[in-house]
Amino acid sequence: MKRPLNFSGVGKATLSQKEAAINEFKGNLFEFLVGSWLSRKYNRETQFLKGFGGSLRSQLMTYEKYLREYDPELVKRLPILARETADKSSSVLPKDIFQIFVVGKCPEFKKRVQLKEADLLALTEDGKEYLLSLKLCKTRAFVNTKSGGVRSFIGKYFYEFREAPILQQKISDFIEQSFLQMSYQLYEKAGLTFEGKFGDEWEEVGKSSLPGQLSKDDLVLVQDHYHRVIQEFYNAFIDFSKKDEEKFKKALFPLLGMGLKNIIQVTCYHGEKSQKGEKERYQLKEVDIVTSQKISNELESIKIEKLKKGLSSFEIRLKTFILQIRVKPMNIFTVPAMKVNCSIKKMS
């Protein structure tokens, strides 16, 4: 389960903060609801709910209250989507499930790194583990599968390539240079003197540290920086794919959300439907299940699409999925830290 967002003064929150909170809270509630419905199917709901007393119960109620205020339609539909997801999930689970846990809310499991992307853990009577990775998203949208820091991404996921550590250091050095280039350009444009890092003077002259609040001209310089960085990652992916295609395919597994072979990805897609002339949101479109075998089949066909000018992302076309690799700031752009976001989308 994801770490909950926490900011005081909901009324003062920006639109993007509210949207982030809604996404975070609905994710937490969705995991709980799917686990609850699943445990009910196996007559284990009492045991499941024992793990959600006291502060955890209060936390979930806080999430629901927030969503009820800012997205009441979501609150109404979430249990229905969760139930459909649980029904589909049970089709790939054995009949002797003994207990179900929401990984991030169970002290005995949440620190187990070997659980990777798992959100739910289902145990059979003889102790066999089934790991479910849950996603709730709009139909035809990209689904986030992995995120990592730009200064460790290549070394972490392409470690089987001998040149990975050297290439990672090269990229890290390049990012520092590109960041300084962007910073100098922005400071010069604002009539300020750049002294190696963003200081208080940046906001004192009315400038923002959030990309979404920049003027169009300033944003172009930031986006140029992102493009220069993604170009380096694009070159690395091309290089690895040419050197050893099998190693490259293996490295893509965790980027596709399959950090373990026994992970079962369950994605609930929702969208709008017209009912009596009115559009209703969060209507179930499809519950899709992906296993490691499915990913292996997807990777039989790989094409790295050309990097388009000005973009901060590129795409890898598989059999029926598109894997997107994107660089973006951790939050503010005024520090060198960035992350690489990986996401997949089903082809229409």
Question: What would you note in describing this structure?
Answer:
This protein is an alpha+beta fold and 348 residues long. Helix content is 43%, strand content 23%. It is built from ten helices and ten strands. It has helices at residues 15-41, 45-50, 54-70, 72-90, 153-157, 164-189, 200-204, 216-243, 245-255, 292-298, and strands at 97-102, 120-124, 129-138, 143-149, 263-275, 278-290, 303-304, 313-317, 321-329, 338-346. A five-stranded mixed beta sheet has the order 1-2-3-5-6. A hairpin with a 2-residue loop joins strand 5 and strand 6 (278-290). Helix 1 (15-41) packs across helix 3 and helix 6 (164-189) runs antiparallel to helix 8.
Low-confidence stretches: 1-11
SS summary, helix count: 10
What is the total tally of β strands? 10
Strand order of the largest sheet: 1-2-3-5-6
What overall geometry do the principal axes of the alpha carbons give?
globular
Mean pLDDT: 91
Radius of gyration: 22 Å
Name the beta content range: 15-25%
